UniProtKB/TrEMBL annotation:
GO terms for biological process: L-histidine biosynthetic process; methionine biosynthetic process; purine nucleotide biosynthetic process; tetrahydrofolate interconversion. This is Bifunctional protein FolD. It catalyses: (6R)-5,10-methylene-5,6,7,8-tetrahydrofolate + NADP(+) = (6R)-5,10-methenyltetrahydrofolate + NADPH; (6R)-5,10-methenyltetrahydrofolate + H2O = (6R)-10-formyltetrahydrofolate + H(+). Pathway: One-carbon metabolism; tetrahydrofolate interconversion. It comes from Rubrobacter xylanophilus. Residues 138-280 form the Tetrahydrofolate dehydrogenase/cyclohydrolase NAD(P)-binding domain. One of its GO terms (cellular component) is cytosol. Its EC number is 1.5.1.5, 3.5.4.9. InterPro entries: Aminoacid_DH-like_N_sf, NAD(P)-bd_dom_sf, THF_DH/CycHdrlase, THF_DH/CycHdrlase_cat_dom, THF_DH/CycHdrlase_CS, THF_DH/CycHdrlase_NAD-bd_dom. Homodimer. Keywords: Amino-acid biosynthesis, Histidine biosynthesis, Hydrolase, Methionine biosynthesis, Multifunctional enzyme, NADP, One-carbon metabolism, Oxidoreductase, Purine biosynthesis. Belongs to the tetrahydrofolate dehydrogenase/cyclohydrolase family. Signal peptide: none annotated.
Length: 284
């Protein structure tokens, strides 16, 4: 049976560290504040934002919500982004995605000051990551790296395979794995004989967004498996991209769903907000 990579426990430790860092900055007179831009009333987005604001309160980070109706103009949101960029009281901020209707998020993300881009999703942040310049890292990929490192999973010199090439997870995670000196392969919907490729992986990360697509036939004996996917089941439960019961007999360690990568993503947003505050105070 595979060892459980407990994201809840590791995230709790990171949150404690962030709370300590926030207190240290407060003693120096440096506030830490996270602003959130929410357009529309998508139920999932409203829930996510509520959870993130509650997380902030638990570690001492002030949060402010800028809520707009679904028919808000892109021009109005862009004006807010520019105002938050220039506000010295704002440590960092993010735009909750998806945006309503046909609104294009790219111009808005592109306008975010990289030093305040706590989601790490702007083209400037992505470019800095790609060429190895300092930047705030995207939360889910960074959470995966932190989880592996804090659970004692060695990455240097190992063969890692990432299933999925999204801008949100797959691409930045491949870059972060390279930074840890892993040998990285990225698979996607056009990969020929997926199982043959994934069976090479000593570390297999699945972020394809397809429920239960990875089974025992895809996994090398003794591999470490990270399941980034999350899907609602018919009975109201949660499951991932990996068929967990099937794969646990072959993997040496794996993340559960829920309780694996999800808590790490939320913790890394807090981590990034603290780092942004330190950057702007010249303390990082």
């Amino acid at each position: 049976m595979a060892r459980v990579l407990d994201g809840r426990a590791v995230a709790a430790r990171i949150r404690e560290e962030v709370a300590g860092g926030v207190s240290e900055l407060a003693a120096r007179g440096v506030p830490v504040r996270l602003d959130v831009i929410l357009a529309g009333e998508d139920p999932a987005s409203v829930t996510y934002v509520s959870n993130k604001r509650r997380d902030c309160a638990e570690v001492g980070i002030e949060s402010r919500l800028h809520a707009f109706p679904a028919d808000v103009s892109q021009k109005e949101l862009l004006a807010l982004v520019e105002r938050l960029n220039g506000d010295p009281e704002v440590s960092g901020f993010f735009i909750q995605l998806p945006l309503p209707g046909r609104m294009d998020p790219l111009p808005l993300l592109s306008a975010i000051d990289p030093s305040k881009d706590v989601d790490g999703l702007s083209p400037q942040s992505a470019g800095r990551l790609a060429v190895g310049l300092p930047c705030l890292l995207p939360c889910t990929p960074h959470g995966v790296i932190q989880l592996l490192g804090r659970c004692g999973v060695e990455l240097e010199g190992r063969e890692a395979v990432v299933v999925g090439r999204s801008n949100l997870v797959g691409k930045p995670l491949a870059l972060l794995l390279l930074r840890e000196n892993a040998t990285v392969t990225v698979c996607h919907s056009r990969t020929r004989d997926l199982a043959e490729v994934t069976r090479r992986a000593e570390v297999l990360v699945v972020a394809a967004g397809r429920r239960g697509m990875i089974g025992a036939e895809h996994v090398r004996e003794g591999a470490v498996v990270v399941d980034v996917g999350i899907h609602r089941t018919e009975d109201g439960g949660l499951t991932g991209d990996v068929r967990q019961e099937e794969v646990s007999g072959r993997a040496s360690a794996m993340t559960p769903v829920p309780g694996g990568v999800g808590p790490m993503t939320r913790a890394m947003l807090l981590y990034n907000t603290l780092e942004a505050a330190r950057l702007q105070a010249g303390l990082s």
